[in-house]
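Homework help board

Subject: predicted structure for assignment chain

Our instructor gave us this sequence and asked us to write out the predicted structure in token form, then describe one feature. I got the tokens but I'm not sure how to describe them. Can anyone check?
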Amino acid sequence: MPRRATAPIAERRRATRFDGRGLIANLAGTLVDLHDISVGGARMDRKSSPADDNVTLVLYRREGSRINVNGSVRVTATIVHQDEGAVRVRFDSASFALSKLIVEHAAKQLGATPFAVK
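My token output:
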């Protein structure tokens, strides 16, 4: 009997999420590791609770044991969920610098050359 095609599950996210390992965020003065990231938002470790739901993050690339501060990207975001292990944020806007950081990060993980952004 032939297999019946099933309808794809509706994805509620508009943007593809990428593995966040290798990226760090400064969230309310604390450096935290990212679990995943997209142009729409990110999920990161929760080490403290920010006082406000509207936050400014500075995103950095980790290169070995060092943090690349020259390639940092500042982005404003809204906290959409917190639990004991993670904080989820929605970026207020996706700037070119943020998109470039994500493309370069994903390309490095995939072993590809990010030719679209220079």
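Reply (TA_rk): Your tokens look well-formed. For the description, you could write something like this. The beta strands are 18-19, 23-27, 30-37, 41-45, 54-63, 66-82, 86-91. That's the kind of observation they're looking for.
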